Amino acid sequence: MENTAVDSSFHRTFKYLLATQFLSRGIPFVFNSRIVRHLSEEDYVVCAVQFHLFVTCILFLSREGFRRICMREDITWDGDSAAGETEAQILKVAWMTFPLGVLVTFSACLIVFWWQDLGYSSPYGRAILINGFACILELLAEPFFILAQKLALLKLRLIVETAATLSRCIVTYALILKQPSSEKAIVFSMSQVAYGASIFIGYWAYFLLCQLYTTRVLFPFRIGNTKS
């Protein structure tokens, strides 16, 4: 019986992770095959390489260490929303990603502006700031992403990430094809905001509306809950 349960859990995990990876790459491939025809080589380098590197570096520096720390603790949801001491302790650490992320984002934007001698009125400069805002939106969802991973809510991750990927592709496709005169840097930055907003709304809506835990557990940094 125990081996059967383990096999069932493994197959379930494999199924959802495979679906998540397939959709997160398959959806952009379908859209990009049409979008790329409307991009110059310079647009592609800026939007597909530079912005991706900028966002990836910010998110990695802001959250990777906290993810590794928080994922070490084993927790399970027993249906008691009043409980959750372990979860609260994990979220206290996980919520530190946000202030650190704001600092990293602010520093990264300053470095890019200084390194490339940008002005706030330039399209590239505005695009950098918009990408920074997108990173902050995504980092706001990071504590709940970590909690979802700890609870093995793989279906939630599949739905949220698929919706986020689809929203990013739709925004990019609509703006590039329907408004070809738009600055491509701004277009891709707005699509990143759509992705970050979808991640933020998806995880926040799930944990706040489904009420798996009380707000005291989900937001353990509030005054009166910070004392151990």
From TrEMBL:
Membrane topology: Multi-pass membrane protein
Listed transmembrane segments: 43-62, 93-115, 127-146, 158-177, 197-219
Subcellular location: Endoplasmic reticulum membrane
Cellular-component GO terms for this entry: endoplasmic reticulum membrane
Pfam family, one: Rft-1
Pathway in which the depicted protein is active: Protein modification; protein glycosylation
Keyword Membrane on entry: yes
Alphabetical keyword list: Endoplasmic reticulum, Membrane, Transmembrane, Transmembrane helix
UniProt record, GO biological process: dolichol-linked oligosaccharide biosynthetic process; glycolipid translocation
Family note: Belongs to the RFT1 family.
Record's function text: Intramembrane glycolipid transporter that operates in the biosynthetic pathway of dolichol-linked oligosaccharides, the glycan precursors employed in protein asparagine (N)-glycosylation. The sequential addition of sugars to dolichol pyrophosphate produces dolichol-linked oligosaccharides containing fourteen sugars, including two GlcNAcs, nine mannoses and three glucoses. Once assembled, the oligosaccharide is transferred from the lipid to nascent proteins by oligosaccharyltransferases.
PANTHER family in the cross-refs: ENDOPLASMIC RETICULUM MULTISPAN TRANSMEMBRANE PROTEIN-RELATED, PROTEIN RFT1 HOMOLOG
Protein name: Protein RFT1 homolog
Annotated organism of origin: Cuscuta epithymum
